[in-house]
Amino acid sequence: MPGAMGRRMLGVAGLLLASGCSPASLLNGLAPERMAGEAIPYGDLPRQKLDLYQPPPETASPPMVVFLYGGGWTEGSRAMYRFVGAALAERGCIVAIPDYRLYPDAAFPAFLRDCALATRWAFDNRAMLGADPGRLFLMGHSAGAYNAAMLALDGQWLGAVGMRPARDLAGVIGIAGPYDFLPLRADLRPIFGPAEQLARTQPISFADGANPPMLLLQGEADETVDPGNARRLAGRIQANGGPVETRFYPGIGHAAIAGALSGTLRFLAPTLRDALAFMRVGEAGT
């Protein structure tokens, strides 16, 4: 992005991603208003609630997208990601953003059970909301990408709510996700439990090729999640004959790849364009 305009936009990016204010709050403040429902229960527990975003009323047969946010399984809230729900809805998606239980109140696999319940809510309500019944997608960033990948690859989690990943999901989009991260860092050991269960906490352990289509988006300059996670998972899926695509963005870090979903920072990386193209939504290149 050459010239003065490019420098100004990069300056905006720096302020939004590195300011003392919450970057998410700034992006949310600039997002279009597309929320259609707030704090909708998908279960009985306090954090089992979701926010819903609707596309313009003239949108025909939109996909249903469940977006799972990151935060290292210890922090995060659906309110922080209004800019994601609004951006996807503005481009023609129905979007549910659920909260899920976090450590230290809960550990593996509680957050997967919550995400499966939220996905079941979307599955049950997609037709009533006007979504195309055959286009239910999971999408997640960072820890949320892990959650989405686990639901897609290890059939027990969606199986517990009466769903089958390859039958009921049209696709899964993982953004900067950890999929193969053993040995665990010390801060993650209490979340994922004793050593004897760790293999079953890794998405790559379940990459047998029977998954729904997956798109793995990854910044090459990510210093939070090693880009090798996406390469190794994609390689294992491909080796087993499963459907997977990857996109690697040079110079893009862990926050920027998600921030680029917003209209304000869309110039940073084609995260939104590539996600929409994978879901076959509208004119994804614009």
Automatic annotation (TrEMBL):
Signal sequence range: 1-24
Keyword field: Hydrolase, Signal
Tell me which domain of life the UniProt entry assigns to the organism this sequence originates from. Bacteria
- Write out the GO MF terms: hydrolase activity
| Alphabetical list of InterPro entries matching this protein | AB_hydrolase_fold, BD-FAE-like_dom, GDXG_lipolytic_enzyme
Ranges of residues in domain BD-FAE-like: 50-234
The family database entries (Pfam families) matched by this protein are listed as: BD-FAE
User: Coiled-coil region(s) at which residues?
Assistant: none
Q: Does the keyword Transmembrane helix apply?
A: no
Cross-referenced PANTHER family: AB HYDROLASE SUPERFAMILY PROTEIN C4A8.06C, CARBOXYLESTERASE
Report the protein name in the record: Alpha/beta hydrolase
Q: What organism, scientifically named, is this protein from? A: Pseudoroseomonas ludipueritiae
